[in-house]
Amino acid sequence: MESYLLEKSRVIAQSDGDRSYHIFYFLLAGASQSLRAKLKMREPQAYKYLNNANRPCFKITAVVDGKEITKVDDAEEFRQVCEALRCVGIPEQIQTEMWFVLIAILTLGNVEFSPDGDGCTVADRSREDVRYVAELLGVDSAEDDLATELTVHTIEVNGKEYTSRIQKRDAAGARDALAKKLYEHLFSYLVSQANNTLAPDDQRPSDAFIGILDIFGFEIFEINRYYLVGQGCLLVNRIMFLLVLMIVELCLSLAVDTLSLLQPP
After folding, report:
1. 255-264 pLDDT, tens per residue?
2. Where are the beta strands (DSSP E) in the chain?
3. Is the model's pTM score more than 0.85?
4. How far apart, in whole angstroms, are the C-alpha atoms of residue 6 and residue 184?
5. C or N terminus of the chain, fewer CB within 10 Å?
6. What angle do CA 36, 38, 136 make, to 5 degrees?
7. CA dist list (Å): 69 to 63, 72, 75, 235
8. CA 161, 162, 168 angle in degrees (round to 5)?
């Protein structure tokens, strides 16, 4: 398996009525009481990365006969995820470390900054969150102060490091970039572990593969993060169109080749 174009932006923000990655909700709903206490878990509404849309989606529901019912049991889904992880060779101890990273990401999203002279500093109300993120990630605050690293820009010139203070907006960007990178590394680890477990004993080169194309539909952005309004939709939809076209052409080509082999001589 290979990952391609992981939607990391979903970690820090979602559209109205949409969710972040499901694993966050599964974990918060399905963790045991001991795990919840160990990781100091909060309700989903308390994490800004899950609650920054006008209409956040904490549960997937549907209306049947005038009544709203829950379509997805997040707690049960978490149980199934844990079982699936065991099947691909990830033991409970490693799973717990993964949950540490996920809670660190969510807690990081609650960190706020305050202006301070020519730069900024972590807001007093967020000091405990920063300390806890460092603890979850195993960062030795005596050597690598996470609060400081989030509020400075470091460059290396001729083997020497120089730091400069950054503004509140840039610090928030650094925080979000760290959260996305943590999730990306965790996702890549899962892909790598699954490949190691599912790899055949016969390692001879082969052209065989299983391709999965996950495309929900075309995009309409209410908040466009590109420089020109509408350019984001155009680029994303153009890429989706080309991907669909490529898959269709590939499938048709394989079908033609297969049929030609089945024809009598």
Report:
1. 787 777 776 6
2. 61-64, 67-70, 113-116, 119-122, 152-157, 160-165
3. no
4. 8
5. C
6. 110
7. 6, 9, 15, 37
8. 130
